[in-house]
Design a protein that fits this description.
This protein has about 425 residues and is α/β, with parallel strands linked by helices. Helices cover about 45% and strands about 15% of the residues. The protein has two domains: about 230 residues, Type I PLP-dependent aspartate aminotransferase-like (Major domain) (Aspartate Aminotransferase, domain 2, 3-Layer(aba) Sandwich); about 130 residues, Alpha-Beta Complex (Aspartate Aminotransferase, domain 1), CATH 3.90.1150.10. The chain starts with 7 loop residues before the first helix and ends in a 7-residue tail after the last helix. The structure holds pyridoxal-5'-phosphate.
């Protein structure tokens, strides 16, 4: 291999990012800390191989070893979720969803999905996303009273619009998503049922949320959120949809698969099948509930009044109507608390400003924090937002965040 001079410029940046991740609080609900084994596979020589096609049916030579890795990933994820078929090649959750639409529907078909401003994802019909440009999305939301999915509305829209597909799943919804009523309504109107488990795949694998696999035609998810694997997507389906799904991923949407990432997915599926992962999933939810309770104690209103999963939504309006989600996020960032702004149901502000915050516990739980630390975090958030823009207070909180994080290094030396 030719010698190349050490790339200080880039590797210094990576070192600084590792330091940022280790010294600030990672509360973004879609993030986690992968294991060293997952990172080792992601950084392996498998990145060198072209493997267009599927195990046993490749377009290039030299794939007999890679085939074993992709086969292992497929078998492990099928066993983990009890699925009939798995495609582990989607580069991301968005690609997985797009492949399902392309494989099972025609452009222009009607799809019923969750409103984006009430928790649904861009790939569930946003006008700026391919899903919204190619398909006719109709949206359901949450009830005004308890801010949970409005199944009366789902049923009413399904019967009126006769969608070809119903999509369940969300990117900002703090409650259990029961797959059964969706499956029943889909069956009543003859629609396919896609469950997008991007956020909660780890909670399902860990046994703390109901599995959609027995109820849905197709389940998509990301491998990097609560499942704690490498950045990527995955599709599980009934056997009858296997061919259509596989053809839509390749050659329909993607070229060569990222076999180093697929190997890392295999590692993550192995880790998620261990008993310790069930303990982890339960701890994520317990932590989130402790954080919710402590934030409510500080006077914050939580969307739906609390949480059943790894994330919660703070509605800032009743706390201080002058603080937007964006302003709050920027202030917390300065204090070393990393999270994102998010719309709340019927948000008067636009999606890039918002009136809410989304806070997740998947990463801090991996780092080893438990309920006591959640109460500390709630106090720190309250201090920053209670004296918004006060640089001294931000600096004081930043110091306490540093001290807290130093006790829970995600990657101990
Ligand atoms: C995160 C997410 C996705 C997309 O995942 P990417 O890997 O970012 O493309 C899709 N659907 C839902 C519900 C998500 O939360």
């Amino acid at each position: 291999m030719p010698e190349s001079p050490h790339d200080h410029e880039l590797f210094d940046i990576i070192e600084r990012e590792v330091e940022r991740q280790s010294t600030t609080l990672q509360l973004i609900a879609s993030e986690n800390f992968t294991s060293p084994a997952v990172m080792a596979a992601t950084g392996s020589a498998l990145t060198n191989k072209y493997s267009e096609g599927y195990p046993g049916k490749r377009y290039y030579g030299g794939n007999h070893v890679i085939d074993q890795s992709e086969e292992l990933a497929r078998n492990r994820v099928k066993a983990l979720f009890g699925a009939e078929h798995a495609n582990v090649q989607p580069h991301s959750g968005a690609s997985a969803n797009m492949a399902v639409y392309m494989g099972l529907l025609q452009p222009g078909d009607t799809i019923l999905g969750m409103r984006l401003d009430q928790g649904g994802h861009l790939t569930h019909g946003s006008p700026v996303n391919a899903s919204g440009k190619l398909y006719r999305f109709v949206s359901y939301g949450v009830t005004p009273s308890d801010e949970r999915i409005d199944f009366d509305q789902v049923a009413e829209l399904a019967h009126r619009e006769r969608p070809k597909m119903i999509v369940a799943g969300a990117t900002a919804y703090p409650r259990i998503i029961d797959p059964e009523p969706f499956a029943r309504i889909a069956q009543e109107v003859g629609a396919l049922f896609l469950f997008d488990a991007a956020h909660i795949a780890g909670l399902i694998a860990g046994g703390v949320h109901p599995s959609p696999v027995p109820h849905a035609d197709v389940v998509t998810f990301t491998t990097h959120k609560t499942l704690r694997g490498p950045r990527g997507g995955c599709i599980l389906s009934r056997a009858e949809h296997a061919d259509a799904v596989d053809k839509a991923v390749f050659p329909g949407l993607q070229g060569g698969p990222l076999e180093h990432v697929i190997a890392a997915k295999a590692v993550a599926f192995f880790e998620a099948a261990q008993p310790a992962f069930a303990d982890y999933a339960a701890a994520v939810v317990r932590n989130c509930q402790a954080l919710a309770e402590a934030l409510a104690g500080e006077g914050f209103r939580l969307v739906s009044g609390g949480t059943d999963n790894h994330l919660l939504l703070v509605d800032l309006r009743s706390w201080n109507s002058d603080i937007s989600g964006k302003k709050a996020r920027l202030a917390l960032d300065r204090a070393g608390i990393t999270l994102n702004e998010n719309t709340v149901p019927d948000d008067p502000r636009p999606p890039y400003i918002t009136s809410g915050l989304r806070i997740g516990t998947a990463a801090v739980t991996t780092a080893g924090m438990r309920e006591q630390e959640m109460r500390t975090i709630a106090g720190l958030i309250s201090r920053v937002l209670g004296s918004l823009g006060d640089a001294d207070e931000e600096r004081a909180v930043r110091d306490e965040v540093n001290a807290l994080c130093s006790k829970f290094p995600p990657y101990p030396a």
